[in-house]
Amino acid sequence: MAKKPVHFSHNGVERAAFADDGQNLLEFLRRGAGDLSPKYGCGQGTCGACTVMIDGETQLSCLVLAESIDGKSIRTAAGLASDQLDPLQVAFMDHFAAQCGYCTPGMLVSARALLERNPKPTREEVMEAISGNLCRCTGYEPIISAILAVAEGRAQA
Amino acid sequence: MIEFRKEFFADERDDDLNEVGKPTRRQDILGHVTGRSPFFDDHLFDGLLHMRCVRSPHHHARIRRVDTAEAEKMPGVVRVLTGKDVPTNLNTLLSLLDFGIDDEPILSTAKVAYRGEPVAAVIAATEAQARAAVKAVRVDWEVLPHVLDVEEAIKPGAPTVCEVYPDNKFIYHGKYDHQKLRFGDVEAAFASADHIVEGRYQMSPIEQAPIETCGAIAAPEQNDRYVCYTSTQALFFSLGTAAKVLQTPSSRLHFIGGTVGGGFGGKVDSIHEPLAVLGAMLTGRPCKYAWDRGEEMQVGAPRGAERWYIKDAVARDGRITARKFIGYFDSGAYTRLSSYAIIKGVGHLPGPYTIPNVYADVYCVYTNRTPATAMRGFGITGVDFAIENHMDKVAETVGVNPIELRILNSYRDGDMKAHRREAKNCALVECCQVVAEKGGVTLSPDARAATSLTGGGGERAQIPNFTATDEHGRVEGFDTGSYAQKASAAATAPQPPRTLPASQQPTSRPVQPPASHQPAIPPTPAAQPAQPAPPQKPAASRSGAMRFSSLSGFRRR
Amino acid sequence: MTSTVETVSTMAEAARAVAQGATFLAGGTIVMRDVNAGEAAPRIVRTIDPSLNDIRISGDSVVLGAGVTMAQVLANRDLEFLHPAARMIGGPQVRNMGTVGGNLFAPHPYGDFAVALLALGARAVMAGQSGGRPLDDLMRDRSRSPALVAAIECPRPRAGSFGFLKVSRVKPKGVSVLSVAALLPREGGRIRGPRVAWGAMGPGPMRGASAERLLDGQELSAATIDRVVQAAAEGLSPPTDAIATDWYRREVAGVHLKRLLEQMERG
To answer: Which of A80, B240, B290, B391 is the most exposed place for a label (fewest CB within 10 A)?
Structure first.
């Protein structure tokens, strides 16, 4: 099985690693790069738990061929916080927007991508933006509330 | 939008709660929002091996031969397990509670009874290699006739799904092929009723569908122990099950759980831990066994389907005077938790209503479908669907508003429930009144004035003087002793239990109060017809001769 | 079967590999599912040829590189007539990945964008071949297509002459109960040469011959719509799946076609 070298930016850090033939980006990030924040939920692009940003666009890492990210920039939930938590993370904490926490990293990445593209989304735009992320236990309402709180400047940083 | 109506039952509680009604931060929330919460699959091991199962494509088939030779030669394959590699290759989940007979192989060797049943497990260096090798395992199947419907399954001549229960019915308390509830005399009430209302209700199986699929990673640890990270919702169940299946003391198993990516009941079955640990034991390397999404949906045990027949005797004013249930739980191919769900469900009958005559026969039926297990309120949710639909049907029949009908029949404090416990802290009347208010339904002055605090007790607190009982569905060959012991005895000398011919079955008889409850403690209060519940004493002595089980009441050890 | 992935620099090389039986990987939303499940072909080919993402707009038609994503369609104002269809494909992540070319080969219940293209009378430009191939042909034998689609040529419809509707149980993101698209060119108030296409009403996107026949030469009046709706499901053989039975799909096809036509009538 051929190994393919991949150079990429991972949450702002330049990295290089080998991808297996046919390996998807989810496995590559988790096993190869040690970033466990994207989650496996379906392996078929339905649940959104593996959502990452590739060059600023949300994509499903389980359906991305790992070697295809050569030269690209990847952002995951693990990279949202720097010295401080991202305001979305704080809002998710305050609005009870995570119960089991399994969909949360993907949900946060989708929410972050939305706010970067559209800092003042409507409720409908928030719903649309997270429509590719399934949540089974928290319920979508607290998640929508948390995202809107950040957009409306009501969340504490 | 949550609204607190603190005026209700204000004098029944201290209003000094500091957390209820206010948002609060979960203790594990920081890990969730930073992606650092350690789910079972978030533990990295060098040299991790991946296990995937070879599964039956048939609903029901005899296994003539499993040929793993080709698969063993495939790239990356370390080992292929079959049933003979599993130390104790037969289990039932509730054997840990001494309830039910071992009925389900870990890796089946003789036959399969549902589509997706595992017959071999491939362990390989990568998941892709394990998948490829699974396809190379050759199984010689002899397809058997299958049965997928509960009522078809209990007809004479139906294929036997699970040989432990040859008539496709779980055996309750070593005595009956169904769980009984007898309270008063429903037939007498039917004979004098103004209306008889009958209904048939069918639920579908429901997949719990957690976003994290079920799985476990096991690895050798120091001191001859094995660590196991698992998605289980029932850590000690999984630990005990693994110890039993692997014939190893639980002290050698170091189980770590508690971070679960959604469960909803679907992560109690302890399917993954025994095989992951076995893989680690036999290869000496870390081993992961997890379902992919397709497996989670296909072989992950759902909430089982239920079929209910309900027959009510109803007075002209809407008062329900008798309710009779015949229920069938579709357990799928094996027992898992369905037998327990029925015990719980029968304790709930006839729903939150005071009905003086109640009867139920509830069957745990084996079919060639995916085994069923727990899900959110299981044992209750399905029959509640049936009951509440039936309430609407009754309301329509007698021409009463459905909310008023419920208020009229609701439990009041002090009423006697069909399982012979007093109703306390009732609140259905008040809930119905709020529903009417929110729904813009105008209630009659009587319904508006009703409360759960008044109108109960007195005559309504009495257990009926006469309860019609019967012995139908009586079986032999099972005794009331330890089910687990029965299983090991059956393994050496199989003696299929049998149902008594109808002629030998005693007919209805008045019930005598028990002379003494010393040697004849009922398996469950609900199951024993018409006897006042024995007072709930603490265990008689510290010798441990007696203990309380939520499954079956007081039991002798 | 584990798969091997080759990366080539031009569409021509990719087309040769496809002709030899390789599976072409573009956005990944279809092929990577199979790779993950161990069900993909042993040989997979992808290309980094930038022409795959070209969008060319001319007076009466548009040319979309086969690798153009749904998100790129939605970001382009000249492609507004395709936005209703592109917006209904998957969720945001899938729209950032899924391509125009891939959608032509998406198995049931996917492929709603192809339904719109089929109704619009689009043609597929095959890699290494000159001239376009009508989508009608391509759809007919798409499961055994040995050639690689390089681009889609699509006529631009006149304002108000094209409509698209997708029906799903889960909103805003859900797979099709069905989708339906209609192109109704008009001459002097009468419809001339209508094209109606259905999704999830057969093994793949297909034309609605009976609806087209009843629309041709008519005004888009309530009476016409009623006649068309009666015959909407004629000749269609919808599949039964977890979303709906074939019976249900046939029953509601007319209802949804009516909604689409009334919406187009209102303009």
So the answer is: B240
**CB C37 to CB B131 under 8 A?**
yes
Kindly tell me if the per-residue pLDDT of B506 is higher than 70: no
Tokens 């969730």, residue? Answer: B32
Contacts of B211 in chain A (CB under 8 A): 39, 41, 47, 49, 100, 102-103, 134-136
Could you tell me how many residues make up chain A? 157
3-state secondary structure string across B530-545: CCCCCCCCCCCCCCCC
What is the side-by-side order of every strand in the sheet holding C162-168? C162-168, C176-183, C195-199, C206-207
Chain B hits for C1, Cβ within 8 Å: 132, 135
**Looking at CA atoms only, how far is residue A150 from chain C in angstroms?**
20
B/C interface, count of CB pairs below 8 Å: 12
Tell me whether residue A68 is in a domain.
yes
CA distance B401 to B384: 19
Give the tens place of pLDDT for each residue, B371-398. 999 999 989 999 999 999 999 999 999 9
* Domains identified in chain A, total number: 2
| Residue A156 within a domain | no
> What range defines the domain where residue A13 resides?
3-79
pTM, rounded to two decimals: 0.91
Domains and CATH numbers, chain C: 4-47 (no CATH), 50-155 (3.30.465.10), 162-266 (3.30.390.50)
Shared domain check, A64 and A14: yes
pLDDT at C145 (0 to 100) = 66
**A49-60, pLDDT tens digit by residue?**
999 999 999 999
Task: State whether residue B262 sits within 8 Å of chain A by CB.
Answer: yes
Computed on alpha carbons and rounded to an integer, the radius of gyration of chain C in Å comes to 18
Contact B129/C at CB under 8 A: yes
